[in-house]
Design brief:
By secondary structure, the chain is of the alpha/beta class. The protein folds into 2 domains: 153 residues, Nucleotidyltransferase, domain 5 (2-Layer Sandwich); 32 residues, no CATH class. Helices cover 39% and strands 18% of the residues. The chain is built from 9 helices and 9 strands. Strands 3-2-1-4-5 form a 5-stranded mixed sheet. Strands 6-9 form a two-stranded antiparallel ribbon. A hairpin with a 2-residue loop joins strand 1 and strand 2. Helix 7 crosses helix 9 and helix 8 runs parallel beside helix 9. The longest helix is centred in the C-terminal third of the chain and has 19 residues. The two termini are 27 Å apart. 42% of the residues are buried.
């Protein structure tokens, strides 16, 4: 349990077998864990004051989210890492062929399989976030752009991986070489979860900003990427 007066947050990133979560205590690395569902990761973080998650929260009813447009402006050459979240009717349609057809017919654009592959995770978090105000959408590349004064190489390259790890270490997040069972998770997903946790800590301290600053809602969900 978190001691009185201390600040615990978690950052979550999706990977092929579920979710990886990185926990920070007063801004420093405090542990990492893997969970098959977002609900399980959040349930294990009852004492967290803020939960950052790399998944869209809130879907447009039509058009695009201004959060995605604004976030692409923050990452420069890495702008392709921020994709437009499909409208809610498209995400809720199944299977992929039907969703892609609906997207083309109603909105005039196709739907990538990569976007649709996140469907189950998006809908799970969509349901949970409506009842848990500790949950905030965070995009790792936007966070790393905030931490860095220059453009980073692609995160799956040697240079990109090491640059991101150096940025995290400089921010006080020193990831250990031995993560136990979490060590099976791809390196970039662990680094992303740690970056998301850094922004969650900024949220808990009240120093983070929402992109865009203008408020845009999907029901009671604020559509914003925090950094």
């Amino acid at each position: 349990m978190t001691s009185p007066g201390s600040r615990r947050v978690i950052g979550m990133d999706a990977w092929t077998k579920g979710w990886v979560a990185v926990s920070l205590l007063d801004g420093a690395f405090a542990g990492a864990s893997i969970h098959p569902t977002a609900a399980g990761a959040i349930e294990a973080a009852k004492d967290a004051s803020a939960i950052g998650i790399d998944i869209p929260i809130g879907m447009p009813s039509d058009g695009v989210r201004q959060a995605d447009v604004a976030a692409r402006g923050r990452v420069g050459p890495r702008r392709s890492s921020v994709f437009n979240v499909p409208p809610r009717p498209v995400i809720e349609a199944e299977p992929y062929a039907a969703a892609n057809r609906l997207s083309k017919e109603r909105y005039g654009r196709g739907l990538s399989r990569q976007s649709y592959a996140l469907r189950d995770k998006v809908l799970e978090v969509d349901m949970i976030a409506r009842g848990d105000k500790r949950i905030f959408e965070v995009h790792p590349e936007v966070t790393f752009a905030k931490m860095s004064d220059h453009t980073l190489q692609y995160k799956k390259t040697w240079d990109g991986m090491n640059a991101r790890r150096r940025l995290l270490r400089a921010a006080g997040i020193d990831l250990p070489a031995d993560l136990g069972p979490v060590g099976v998770v791809p390196v970039d997903d662990i680094l992303d979860a740690a970056a998301v946790a850094w922004t969650a800590d900024r949220i808990a301290k009240g120093t983070a900003e929402a992109i865009p600053a203008e408020t845009e809602f999907d029901g009671n969900l604020r559509m914003a990427i925090w950094v």
